[in-house]
Specification:
The protein is 26% helix and 30% strand. With 185 residues, the chain is α/β, with parallel strands linked by helices.
Length: 185
Amino acid sequence: MSAATANKVRIGGGEWRSRLLRFPDALALRPTPDRVRQTLFNWLGQELPGQHCLDLFAGSGALGFESLSRGAASATLVEQNPAVYKALESNAASLQAARARLVRMDAMQFLAGNAQPFDVIFLDPPFGQGWLEKILPQIGRHLSADGRLYVEAESALPAVAGWTLLKHSKAGSVHAHLLKCADER
């Protein structure tokens, strides 16, 4: 990545297509690559009208802001790092993202206090820190009846109890997964 493109990610579609999101250097901050986001929104449908989205490890905000750009009714972006959170605030202001809800909090604390069901949850935690093992068993209760869970990981997910794998792809070192709850609710 050149110095000119470092710490920037471009929104790929919708109302804010081609707008840049800026973010600071932060340990384990790894924005979802353009190619992976393109695949994800092909899976979900190019537009997300009326959808309520959760970007649980928001980081750059690329997934949450992209969902809003594509017509989502709301996106909750959860980020614990103060400097990264400040960049999210700046990007939300620049985009005039009135449907964005920014939450500065630990992901587990947020889930413990959340009662809102989401139609799409983006789960892209820092790699190699055991987050998926902690979150996957409980995140299903935060999805709407026909909701979808997007997971980024450093390897293909093994079969996970309670989840059905709908799609999987790999781009570089990123494995992208789209899942739904296995139980019919």
